[in-house]
Amino acid sequence: EMSKELTFVTDTDVFVLRGRPCELSAFSFIPAKIRNLPQERTYFNSARKEHHIIGSRYNRQFAQAEDYNNKIHRDDREHAKSRGLTVYVEETQKDVPSLSSSVYGHRLNRHIDHPDRKHVRVGHVKSEFFRRNGVTLTSDIKL
Q: Which InterPro entries does the UniProt entry name for this protein (predicted)?
């Protein structure tokens, strides 16, 4: 087996990639150890949260809370309708939002096209022949 070890040094970290170079990709790299990166370098811009039950795989799967939450659609989905997540707080702290179509992304505080009346068309109608009640009088009607 021709396994190689590639080392990359950046300003903040040293990354070691193990494997054949043809199999390595920037998108498929999973570090062997859990990285403790600062909050600014994570994808969601949040600190790491330990949300799993510590113990065996059996305990993590079957030692669930017995309570019922009537606010979610199905009780087995933990984050249904984003309940319990802090998406807005995470997105507003970022310089660049995670998704360009994010509802919680950064929007401009000013309008691009200001709502002013520079190019408005005002119709002036003389009141001699225009009646505002919708009834017009014509001279050819005989009583």
A: CFAP90
User: 43 with 98: CB under 8 angstroms?
Assistant: yes
pLDDT of residue 104: 47
* Distance in angstroms (rounded) separating the CA atoms of residues 32 and 23: 16
Closest to 32 in 3D by CA, of 47, 15, 49, 44 = 15
Decide: residue 80, CB within 10 A, 0-12 exposed, 13-18 middle, 19+ buried. middle
* Residue pair 45/39 in contact by the 8 Å Cβ criterion: yes
Position 106 confidence tier, pLDDT thresholds 50, 70, 90? low
What are the structure tokens assigned to 117, written together? Answer: 């009346």
Which amino acid, residue 24? L
The type of residue at 68 is: Y
Q: Could you give the CA distance from residue 79 to residue 72 in angstroms, rounded to a whole number?
A: 8
* Phi, psi of 6, rounded to the nearest 5 degrees: -110, 135
Structure tokens belonging to residue 128: 């001699």
Distance CA 13, CA 32 (A): 15
Cα separation, 65 vs 67, in Å, equals 6
Among the ranges given (17-31, 43-57, 95-109), the one the predictor scored with the smallest mean pLDDT:
95-109
